[in-house]
Amino acid sequence: MSIRMIFLLLLTYRKQNMCLRLRSDSPLFNKFIDGIIADRTLNTQHVDDLIERMEELISKYSDKALMAYNKRLDNVTSRLLRIKVEHDVSGVDLRALFEFKTLYDRLLSYHSRQLIRDTFYVDKEGVILGSVWKPLSSIGIYVPCEETPNISSMFMSAIPARLAGIKHIYVATPYHKIKDKRLFMACASICGVECIYTFGGPQAIIALALGTETVKKVDKITGPGNIYITAAKKRMFGRVGIDGLAGPSESVIIADKSADTQQVSVDLAAQLEHDKSALAVLITKTPKKASAVRSNINALMKLVPSDSNIKHSWSNYGLTIVCKSSTFLYNTVKKISPEHLHLNTSNAFEMMKWIHSAGSIFIGRHSPITVGDYAAGCNHVLTTNIIPRFSSGLSVLDFMTRKSVICLPTLRSLRSISTPCIELALRENMDLHALSIGCRLHVTNNVGH
Ligand SMILES: NC(=O)c1ccc[n+]([C@@H]2O[C@H](COP(=O)([O-])OP(=O)(O)OC[C@H]3O[C@@H](n4cnc5c(N)ncnc54)[C@H](O)[C@@H]3O)[C@@H](O)[C@H]2O)c1
Ligand SMILES: [Zn+2]
């Protein structure tokens, strides 16, 4: 069956507002999984075209183009594009602020363990080699706005950035959507943010990458977002650093007989709240578990508004898979390589040994993915779309660069490695490279032998 036929079949399920169900022994199993992955990753030509045009206009018309896009995409007419962050907690909901402070402390504790010391060593030829780590000078944090901006995402980028030693931290977010602006401002101040750009969307990513009259060009952009944000980050990569492509959320839950069906159903449905293209997959060896979870979520769907994220994502990218063996189960996880993986099984730690491709792994029934979204302490900015197979989520090291340091302190140390250098240079037809070493070897008045 062709990939086109698979898409048509997927469409039929979607029209019926049903999630897809698969069995690993079905002959079409691999094609269906590939079809779903392709559907989430490839179907973006119109988005790429929009981003290309946006880049052209922002480069040409700067703030004017930004304002035009703010009006067109978000219906925002304000000319105020930047607000300086002041430390002011008057009128702030202190209970909420206290909970954000807890998030701050937990993130600080987790990420401080990622800091790496500079290293130096002297080898037996007397060559001094080292690695030194330096912070970037400025970053732009994109804070996405599901219903209202995800303040937690600001902390997820700002805390490791501050630990790395970054001096200038800017935030861009659809400010008009913020319900509690005082709380947002107080949190921005706790995070050490210098100023807030009051607009989001892909235009914010392009502005931070290129700079405009109002927006300062930054070294790197971090933070998650929807497909438009992710496409803009992808396009800007190279002109600006990008943390990774952290697009619409993905969750896989593996449940065995010991898992509580109600909890699994709620956990799976919860992760559909993020986006209309959120992916939520249940993998189990127990067919009864799969059908019970499906009917729980189908019942829930009758209660939610027809245009809600949950309703769309359940019929677009909701999936239950019954695997007949552990080998199939691990292969399926590898194929999907999800952002989040919850092992809701009695042997979760044992299973973890076999998992190589997931952004965050949640172990056991009391560790739902939601704790990772908020206050567990790990970073929730994680790559998606099979990227977890070869790349990790945000960490302190994303805000630093490593420099190699090379010092040959004496002529003797240069002599000791000169032969392979000259030999290799000559073999690569780089005569002057060979000469740059050769001309030093016979000089007798060098300082330091
Ligand atoms: N992978 C991760 O680490 C992670 C973590 C948290 C959230 N997320 C994801 O972040 C995303 C948040 O999405 P969101 O949409 O609520 O907020 P968002 O801030 O990512 O995007 C909203 C903006 O997108 C722009 N936009 C909307 N429709 C557009 C269109 N048709 N053309 C051009 N621009 C358009 C608008 O400017 C709007 O303000 C979700 O996909 C969620 O899953 C991912
Ligand atoms: Zn979530």
Automatic annotation (TrEMBL):
UniProt cross-references to CDD domains, sorted A to Z: Histidinol_dh (cd06572)
Pfam families (alphabetical): Histidinol_dh
Catalytic class of the enzyme: oxidoreductase
GO molecular function per UniProt: histidinol dehydrogenase activity
Keywords: Oxidoreductase
Assigned EC number: 1.1.1.23
Assigned protein family: Belongs to the histidinol dehydrogenase family.
Name recorded for this polypeptide: Histidinol dehydrogenase
Annotated source species: Candidatus Hodgkinia cicadicola
